[in-house]
Design a protein that fits this description.
single chain; about 280 residues; alpha+beta; Hypothetical Protein Pfu-838710-001; 9 helices; 10 strands; globular
């Protein structure tokens, strides 16, 4: 088991990642999409302290390719989530409903490409992702009639409003022999209106597989470090962080579970007191 060093600064940890990632075999975006797009898949999420990440990467470096764009391995993303005025997407997740949607615009900064994206989770817990190219991010979905209509949502574009900005950096890995794609999100920042929250201690790793299996080097490593799946989305987590008045009792055990793994800093302890 790897012991997290609470005295190691976040900046020191983050700066150590690139030299480790340079030891991975690189894969281009075209190759990655050709080998492992996994638009229909099972997702398993893990949340842990960033100080564990260098050890995880060192442990798996010979088994995965890392996405490389212009020799960069840690990519910035910008995402704008949408929901109904009644926050139907948020509450369906909170209430454990199957057949639920998340709707977002996302900018892949390194390639300066933007998409309107929909994630649908069905009653078999399978995630199905669809998307349509857009020119730029916009809070007005009325500008995107054509893109929106192609995604076959149960909502009209005028039924939705922007609810949350999420900024983060991502490492994308593809296993060399298994059908497995992994995204590792870090340096999360949430914004909406005048509300702002940075959670740079937190890492969210998502293992994407066509069939759910425990045969994953990353899952094995995290299990050996007593870390287990946490099924809370970045969207719902951000909504709770910035809107404490929202009904969130179903998320409290999950948030407490996350905090247990990363509660090494005073700002996190203050947040724990709310729960």
């Amino acid at each position: 088991m790897f012991m997290v060093n609470p005295n190691l600064s976040l900046e020191t940890t983050f700066s150590s990642l690139n030299p480790i990632l340079q030891q991975f075999s690189p894969i281009s975006l075209t190759e990655l999409n050709g080998r492992g797009s996994l638009q229909s898949r099972f997702d398993t999420k893990y949340c842990f302290h960033i100080n564990l990440l260098p050890q995880l990467l060192l442990h798996i470096q010979h088994e995965y390719w890392v996405l490389s764009i212009d020799e960069q391995h840690i990519m910035p993303y910008e995402t704008l989530y949408f929901d109904t005025p009644q926050l139907e997407c948020y509450y369906k997740h909170h209430n454990g409903k199957a057949n639920r949607y998340k709707i977002r615009e996302r900018r892949y900064v390194n390639t300066d490409t933007c998409f309107l994206e929909v994630k649908f989770k069905n009653n078999q817990k399978r995630t199905i992702k669809s998307r349509s190219t857009i020119a730029h991010l916009t809070p007005d979905l009325g500008e995107l009639d054509h893109a929106f209509s192609s995604l076959h949502l149960p909502y009209g574009n005028h039924d939705l409003q922007p609810t949350l900005w999420v900024y983060y950096k991502r490492i994308t890995l593809l296993h060399k022999t298994l059908e497995e794609r992994v995204t590792i999100d870090l340096q999360l920042t949430y914004d909406i209106g005048q509300k702002h929250h940075e959670w740079h201690e937190l890492v969210i790793a998502e293992i994407k597989q066509p069939k759910q299996t425990q045969q994953s080097p990353i899952i094995s490593f995290l299990k050996n470090n007593y870390l287990y799946p946490s099924g809370v989305s970045k969207y719902c987590l951000g909504m709770v962080l910035l809107n404490p008045h929202l009904k969130n009792n179903a998320f409290k055990p999950k948030i407490q579970f996350i905090l247990k793994n990363i509660s090494k800093h005073d700002d996190i302890r203050q947040f724990v007191q709310r729960y």
